[in-house]
Each structure stands twice: as C-alpha cells, then as structure tokens.
Amino acid sequence: MTTMVITDLKHNENSMMIVKTIITIAKSMELTVVAEGVETDEEQEMLKELGCDYYQGFLYEKALPAKKLEALISTKASSLKTLPKEEQPLHVINTPDDQA
Fold first, then answer.
1. In this predicted model, what pLDDT tens digit does every residue of 28-59 receive, in sequence order?
2. Are 53 and 77 contained in the same domain?
3. FRET label pair with 28: which of 50, 68, 72, 99, CA 20 to 30 Å apart?
4. Number of Cβ within a 10 Å radius of residue 92
5. Are residues 10 and 56 in the same domain?
6. How much of the chain exceeds pLDDT 90, in percent?
7. 30 and 74: one domain?
8. Are residues 25 and 71 in the same domain?
9. 47 and 57 inside one domain
10. Which domain holds residue 92?
C-alpha cells in the first residue's frame, strides 16, 4: 500500500475502506501486506488493527544515502539477532530461514 491512502487513513473514510479492501484481498490470496509511508504511531496502530503485516516509512527511519543505509542495516541486524523473536520490532522482516 502506498503513502497516498495511508496519510488520510484517520480522516478519510474512503482511504480506510481502500486499505481494508486491499488487506482483505491480499489475505484471501495468502499474500503479505506491506504499508509504505507510515509516519506516525497512530497510522501504524490502525494498520496493525486492520491486519497489515509490515510497515515502512519515516516513523522508523528517514531516507538515507546507500552507504549510510548499509551501515544501519549491518548495525541493526547484528543487534536484532540477539533479541528473542517475540521481542523483535514488528517492522523487521524475517528471512525464510528465521521462520523455522
């Protein structure tokens, strides 16, 4: 899902219906739902309640140059591996190997 519908989620009933429909269709097809452009805790909570699986956006990290992104991923990945799975943040996408 894109920023366009996420931004108006709280204030626009049509956006809410679009998001609900997208999630319902995706779940019926056994797809994973990723929302992009999540900027507030409130947006994430609403999306979570609707069944969204993963989130990305400024709430988690601002856009970064490639080199800084590589360093951030490297740092976060090594620290997250030490957390029990149930304590890992919701927005961390596990690899297929992690889901066993």
1. 999 999 988 898 999 999 999 999 999 888 88
2. no
3. 99
4. 14
5. yes
6. 31
7. no
8. no
9. yes
10. 64-100
SS3 16: helix
Domain count for the chain, please give it. 2
Co-location of 15 and 48 in the same domain = yes
Rounded Cα distance between 58 and 60, Å, is: 5
Query: End-to-end CA distance of the chain, in Å?
Result: 27
What residues contact residue 27 under an 8 Å CB cut-off, 6+ apart? 33, 51
Do 26 and 69 lie in a common domain? no
Report how far residue 6's alpha carbon sits from residue 18's, in angstroms, rounded to the nearest whole number: 10
**Packing angle, helices 13-28 and 41-50, rounded to 10:** 50
Considering only residues 8 and 31, tell me which one the structure prediction assigns the higher pLDDT: 31
Interacting residues of 40 by C-beta distance below 8 A, sequence separation 6+: 59
